[in-house]
Amino acid sequence: MIKVKNLTKVYGDRKAIDNLSFEIAKGEVVGFLGPNGAGKSTTMKIITGFMAPTSGEAMIGGEDVFENPVAVKKKIGYLPEAPPLYPEMKVKDYLKFVAELKSVPADKIKEYIDYALSATQLNEVAHRRIENLSKGFRQRVGIAQALVSQPEVLILDEPTVGLDPNQVAEIRSLINSLKGKHTIIFSTHILSEVQATCERYIIINEGKIISHKSLVSEAGASQKVIKTLCFNESGMNGLVAKLNSLKFVNSVKVNGKELIISFEGESSHIAELSKVIATSEAGLVSFSIEQDSLEDVFIKLTSKKESKDGGNQ
Known about the structure:
Layout: E1 2-11, E2 14-24, E3 29-33, H1 40-47, E4 55-60, E5 63-64, H2 69-73, E6 76-79, H3 91-101, H4 109-119, H5 135-147, E7 153-157, H6 165-177, E8 183-187, H7 191-197, E9 200-205, E10 208-214, E11 222-229, H8 233-244, E12 249-255, E13 258-264, H9 267-278, E14 284-291, H10 294-302, H11 304-308
Parallel strand pairs: 3-8, 3-9, 6-7, 7-8
Antiparallel strand pairs: 1-2, 1-4, 4-5, 9-10, 11-13, 11-14, 12-13
Helix pairs in contact: 3-4, 4-5
């Protein structure tokens, strides 16, 4: 549904995005992540046709964003970081205005407005002025305007920015309710939201993709297996030596009666580790597994260059 190929945007001597390529299938929900200035908003503006790239191409539903802009824009609902609201208008009037701007057929406008209001749970405030709504409701209105043309693709730039935890949870629930009805790509700094709502994530840094993974399988995610053991010294030494000999084990640390094993996690490796420990002379008491969170992965990946440069910004 969304195809980006060799996308580059240059401002003077700086590349905001550098040769980006990725695809998003119909119906997928994908998180678009990166630190401030990574190029997320620039990429989204190009995909929506708001900004032209220096080179490369962006396709929506098989249509080139810049060769067929009108056809593409009919397939897209876009929420920029600052929602394009008219505070003096009432919610329903505003959505009617947006529907007309998006050339929704006259006989479909009421149906589409009702869909947008229902999907975003705005019926109770449909006749209130936008300026009198809370920030959370205003954000919902922003999403409703993206939905009012019933687009195939939703592009949401920081949909939860500035919201309190309850409002963030409401937006999360809203995005989950839209799964399967729209192809969704959204950027956020709240990584737990990506884990709660997305099937995949794309992390970019300094305009380049540095990770592109599935959240369903968490393929390649580093895991830590923590074992609490009762052991005699000879049993411990033998077990540590045996664990260190396993190719997939990154490190083995002993902390009193606790043995901490860091490894690249696959289910077969967990089974093998369990067998090695259970059949050792160390005396297994308990066994637990901890997996790196998306936040751990994000920090490791986006801080690599800073570490190499000695911490320079």
